[in-house]
Structures are given as C-alpha cells and as structure tokens.
Automatic annotation (TrEMBL):
Record organism: Sulfuracidifex metallicus DSM 6482 = JCM 9184
Name of the featured protein: Alcohol dehydrogenase catalytic domain-containing protein
Cofactors required: Zn(2+)
Keyword Zinc: yes
Gene3D superfamilies with a match to the protein in the record: Medium-chain alcohol dehydrogenases, catalytic domain (3.90.180.10), NAD(P)-binding Rossmann-like Domain (3.40.50.720)
Domain Alcohol dehydrogenase-like N-terminal: 23-109
Keyword annotations of the record: Metal-binding, Oxidoreductase, Zinc
Amino acid sequence: MKTILFDGELKLVDSGLEGDYPVLAVGICGTDISMIKGSYKPRKFPLVLGHEFSLEVDGKIKTSEINIVDWTCYYCRKGMYTHCSNRKAIGIDLDGAMRERISLPSYLLHNGTGSPITSAVVEPMAAVLRMVELLRVSPEEEALVLGDGPLGIMSALVLSRLGLHVELKGRNKERLRVAMDMGLQVTNSPSSYDIVIEATGGNAVEEALSHVKPMGKIGLKSTHGMDVKLNQTKVAVEEITLIGSRCGPFYLWDKAASLAKELHVEDMIRVYPLPRFRDAFRDVMERKVVKAVLDMERK
C-alpha cells in the first residue's frame, strides 16, 4: 500500500504493511516536524508518521486515540491509561497512519465529526480539552495563548468558548490573519494574565513566565524534545503553577468532535492530496499554513 515513510527523509513507498481500515485523512503535527528535524527522537526507525487521523470503520467516519496500552500497569489500574507504563504511541513508537490502511484496537476508536478532514484534528482538540481540564479555568480569568499554530488557535478558541477573555500572540502574519478571521483577538502587548498557554512548538517558557501574574498558571503544550531554560526562582517566589498536558482521555473525545464542528476548525486547515505530501510538510515547516491535512483518498 502507499505509505509515507520517514527514514531520515520522507518517502512515498509501496510498503508491505496491511490494515483492516481505510485511512481517510491525516494531520501533520508539530511532533512530526520535530521528529523530522531531529529534536524529538522517534522510538521506531524507520517510521510511518501520523497520529492525528480519521478512518472508515463499517462505513462510518471514525477518529482514534494514539496510545496502545496494556490495561494492567499501575496507571491503567488507576484509570490513568494515557500514562500506561508500557504504552506505545501510534506514529511515535509504532507505525502511524500515513498509509492507505491501518489496524487498531477498538478501544481507541471514537465517532468523528462527519467530515474526514475535520475528524483528523479531533485528537489535538481532545488534547486541548485535557489541558483546559487540568488548568481548571474560570470565566472571570484572562488568558494569553502563545503560538499561532493549530494548538494555539484551538486553545484560544476553546478558552473563548468557555467565557474567558483571551488574546493570542504570535509572529506569523498569515497565521494571525487566519486567527483573526476565526474571531480571535491578537495582541503584542506586554500585559500579564491569569493563564498563559505555551503552544509555540518552540522554546518559549521564559516568554510565558514574563506574561503570567503572580499565582497564575501556565499550560505547557509544546512537545518539541528540546531542553528549555526556566527561571525557577520566579516560579517559586511568585507561586506560579506549571501544568503540562499531553493526550485527551476517552471521555473528552465526543466533546472534542463536537467542538471541532462548532468552532469551524476547517477554517484553519489546508488540504493536500497524498502525492503532494512534500508540499504539505514544507508548507508546515515554513509556516505557510496553520494546519496541513493529507487527504489519503485523493490520488
């Protein structure tokens, strides 16, 4: 089957991989880019990338969680299965979805949005909801989101939907234009906020610290694999809470699919047919688009 393989470079190959379900669409994530650049080390090599995707199961559009777990470890028994001691992440530890077909355990599957394209970004929306859940936000709080990529824009959209005053800070004019067209307020202010979301995909923890109020909260969403500088004294003295978050657990996925439709995430997506995968990756790396999604059915 046609497969995008990363073996030091990206290649479209005819692989011997098989699968039960047709893959419909796959989103290109910042983690994919970090693995290509080398800052985030894949735990399988060569590797088929892709952990944000939609697929067809029994004629229905589905989306999928990314963690294969054992259900027997300490964390699984505590209900914290996304932290399974023996978890294997699709597209990181195991071959991912950038191929024509894939096999998955049924416990990973959730209903999509009705669209293969927007269903491919339910996974990052669920991750945003997990971050919001851990931050325990309140409508009276003011929030700043750092980052004009898909996680930044989705974070700002969700926080706004929950009633917070939200501003978005980024550097890419075209991406910021998309954010404004989606109804978000863009800022370059040095102001301080109750909540700061670091979703730049880069090393911006110090920038987040410069914007958070004493006793404020910082949500960390970037998983780039790089070491970062942290002013621990400021964190301690000002009693700032740092909260990391990764994947959305199963109970958030229906809400994530609903919000992906309600918040019109399609407005930040550019769709590429499979043969143009190199264009899609290039445009993401050059920040020419907010979100690139590969349409695996368009040849």
